[in-house]
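Z., the sequence and structure:
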Amino acid sequence: MEIKKIKRIFESFNKLNILIVGDSILDAYMWGDVDRISPEAPIPVVSVNKKENRLGGAANVTLNIKALGANPILCSVLGGDDKQAIFARQMADNNLEISGLIIDNNRKTTVKTRIFGHNQQLLRIDEEILERISKKTEKELINRIKSIISKTVIDAVIIADYDKGVVTPALIREVAEMANSKNIPVAADPKIKNFNQYKNINLFKPNLKELAGGLKTELVKGDFENIKATAKLHRESKNIRYILVTLSEQGVLLGSEETNEVISAEAHQVSDVSGAGDTVISVASACMAANVPPLDMAIIANLAGSLVCEKVGVSPLDKEQLLSETCNIYSKIIE
C-alpha cells in the first residue's frame, strides 16, 4: 500500500461515527513505594503516593476510537453508586458523550483496582456483579441503542464483551439484526460465556484462550494449522465474514473466504498487555468502517496492539505514532 493511501485512510477515520456496546469498567490505580514487609502477614506494605482512575473495558474501546479521530458513542450500564459518578467525570474529562449510559440502582459499577509498588503490579482487586442485567435494564439498553441508530449515521458497531453481565444473548441478537438491516458492519470482541451467540456479523476477534474455551477444544500455542482450521470452521458455521484471532507475541490470525494466514507481531518492548485487545478491536473496526482491505486491516490492528503493550496500565493508542509506524512497515514492504 502506498504511503499516501495510508495517510488518507487515517484521515478518513475522522469522519466515522462508531457505536460501542458492552461492559464498561473503571480502572483504578494506586502507585507507591515498598520498603518493608507487613508485621501482620508476609506481604509488602505499599506507601501510596499516587492514585489514578482510567476508563476501561468498553469505555477503553471508546477512548481508542476517539484517539483515532472518530466519534464514539458508548452504550453501557453503570451501577447506582458513587463509582458511576467517577466514571461520568472520566467520560466528561475525555469529551465523551454519555447519552448511551444506563444507570441500574440494583447493580454496582465494575471497578478493577491495581496496586503497584516500584512500578511492579502487586495486586488487583475486582468489585463487580457478574450476573446478567435484568430484563428491564436489557430492554432499556436495547431501546437506547435503537434510538441512537435511528437518529445518527453509524458507520460501525462494536460489541465489547467482558463477561460482566451487560452483554446478553438478546442484546447480541437485537444489535446484529438492527445493524444488518441498515448495512452497518458489526464487530465483536467476545468472552467465553456468550462466545457462540455471535453470528451473522462482520468481524469476530477472540484471543487464542477465548477461541479454545468458547469452542471447548484444546489449542496449542504455535500450532497454527490447527488454530487456522478451528477458526475457519467457527467462522463458516456462524456466518462471520472475518475472524481475527490475537496470538499475543505471535501476532494475529486473519481468516476469511479469501485468506487464512498468520501475521507476525512487530517487535516492541512489552511492559503491560492490559487493554491491547481493546486497541486491536478498535483499530480493526475503524479500518473495516473505512473499507480498508482485510489484510491491511489486520496488519494495522496488529501493530496497534503491539504499540500499546509498551505502556503500563490500560491506555489508548497514539494515532500519530500508529501512523508513523504503519508507514514504516509499508515502506519496507514496498522496498
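The first strand starts at residue 17 and ends at 22. DSSP finds ten helices and 13 strands in the chain.

Let me know what you think.
H.
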